[in-house]
Amino acid sequence: MRQIFISDLHIGDGSAKDDFEFDEELIDLLEHFSTQPDVELIIVGDGLELLESRAVKDFGLTSFDVLVSSLDGTVLSNIESRHPRLFESFRKFSKQHRIIYVVGNHDYYVLGNQRLKDELRNLLGCEVMPYYYNEDAGLLAMHGNQFDLINKFSKDGDGTIVPPLGDYMTRYMMFHFDEYLESLVPAEILSDYDNVRPSLDVFHWFERVLEVYDLGVDILELWVGAFLKMMQTAEARIWMKKNFPRLRCLSKVFLNKWGGITLGSLLVRAVMKIRGMRRSDYLFRKAKRLFREKALTADELIGYTDGELRLPELNVVVFGHIHHHAFRVVPVKGQNKFYINCGTWRPVVEKVNGRKKYGFQKKAELFYAIVSVPRNGDLEITTNVKNKTSKSKFL
Questions:
Q1: Which of 112, 172, 239, 314 has the fewest Cβ atoms within 10 Å of its own Cβ atom?
Q2: Which residues contact 375 (CB under 8 A, 6 or more apart)?
Q3: Using CA atoms, how far apart are residues 145 and 147, in angstroms rounded to an integer?
Q4: Residue-level pLDDT at 390
Q5: Residue 56 CB coordination number (10 Å)
Q6: In this structure, what are the phi and psi dihedrals at residue 52, rounded to the nearest 5 degrees?
Q7: CB-based contacts of 84, cutoff 8 Å, min separation 6
Q8: Where does residue 91 rank: exposed (0-12), middle (13-18), buried (19+ CB within 10 A)?
Q9: How far is it, in rounded angstroms, from Cα 170 to Cα 145?
Q10: What residues does 162 pair with on adjacent strands?
Q11: Alpha-carbon dihedral sign for residues 120, 123, 128, 131
């Protein structure tokens, strides 16, 4: 049996932040493997872009629970109508092969809404899971946002589930920054600030946009201002109280604007720098810990399943989420274990040659991994990545 792993496709409905443009490449991949025996496809989270969809935006800044329960199949049918040939390829593949759809953070609503789950099963011909564990191969696949402070669920003292700040932040910025930016710059620029890697470079990206476009307004100041206002909302305060109870007094410095936009900018930069440093390796560190402990705690699975998860055997850990593909060997007690991150099929925006003076480039690295267990029981892992860019993708 061979299992193909991909993640973070972010296939969307064509709205401003939908920058999935690799239908043909994905169709070719599905058609290539559809004629081969004993093949399964595992999508390791964020296969579809629900969070930044028109249907979600139409609900406004309603509470997370209301949003999850209120969404209907429209959010999925809008995406299918934008990518009809691709969805047909998924269904054709699923007639002969198993498709497992692991839920991430941009498509989480599917897990909490039975109507959406049933609709997704029909549209892709897939099984929907919070995580995937293959005991025969000792393989665990989950999205990875469960280990990202901004994008994980938590519980209040009374047991109430506190939704991720990342979900609310994304929806808030749709209204309080994205719409304004969309009126100032070409449509393809709007999604770029969300794709800048490392995340701290977004400040230099804003500066580059101001150099190229005569906007007449400081969009960096607008972005920081919108972020600070978001942190004053009830949703953000509840999240802060749960996750940073000892730092609530510090948060008042910018929540009450004592330091103004300059101090706010410094605080945001500091937070992003810390996240940027963690982003490159925190899932790898988590994988190494999993190889040793072979278990996930109940706190790490809040919002996805109840209780802890014991893993009798663990040889391979597959994550997504951080949009940076990787394949690494991890020696554990004299045995080789394997960490895979499936990266993303969404474009990544980064400095040319790592230098601000050369501007930014947008490129895509279309990654997938194949894990197979031959008859002799020895794991075989193959990875493939296709790099795509063009002269027009430079700023």
A1: 112
A2: none
A3: 5
A4: 66
A5: 23
A6: -100, 40
A7: none
A8: middle
A9: 15
A10: 154
A11: negative
Higher pLDDT, residue 181 or 52: 52
Q: What is the mean pLDDT of residues 98-104?
A: 98
184 pLDDT higher than 50? yes
Q: Which whole number is the average pLDDT over 163-172?
A: 94
Who's near 303: CB < 8 A, 6+ residues apart? Answer: 108, 152, 153, 161, 163
Task: Decide: 112 and 68 in contact? Cβ < 8 Å.
Answer: yes
Q: Which helix (H) or strand (E) holds 338?
A: strand 335-341
Residue 261 clears pLDDT 50, i.e. is over it: no
**Which of 45, 109, 105, 107 is CA-nearest to residue 71?**
109
312: preceding bond cis by omega (within 30 degrees): no
Q: Say if residues 190 and 171 touch (Cβ distance below 8 Å).
A: no
Token pair belonging to 368: 């997938």
Strands 132-134 and 127-129, how do they pair? Answer: unpaired
Cβ count within 10 A of residue 359: 16
3-state secondary structure of 128: strand
Task: Tell me if 291 sits within 8 A of 330, measured CB to CB.
Answer: yes
User: Given CA atoms 235, 223, 389, 339 in this order, what sign does their dihedral have?
Assistant: negative
Whole-number pLDDT of residue 216? 80
Residue 167's contacts (CB-CB under 8 Å, 6 or more residues apart) are 51, 64, 105, 108, 151
Q: Take residue 313 and report the two structure tokens written for it.
A: 């055997």
pTM value is 0.91
Summarize the confidence of residues 169-194 as an average pLDDT.
84
With a CB cutoff of 8 Å and minimum separation 6, the contacts of 200 are 269, 272, 273, 276
- Counting residues of the chain whose pLDDT is more than 90, the rounded percentage is 59
* CA-based end-to-end distance of the chain: 44
What's phi and psi for 355, nearest 5 deg? -120, 130
Dihedral sign, CA of 252, 255, 261, 266?
A: positive
Helix, strand, or coil (residue 227): helix
Do 76 and 19 contact (CB within 8 A), yes or no?
Answer: no
Residue-wise DSSP of 144-189: SGGG-GGGS-EE-TTSPEEPPHHHHHHHHHIIIIIHHHHTTS-HHH
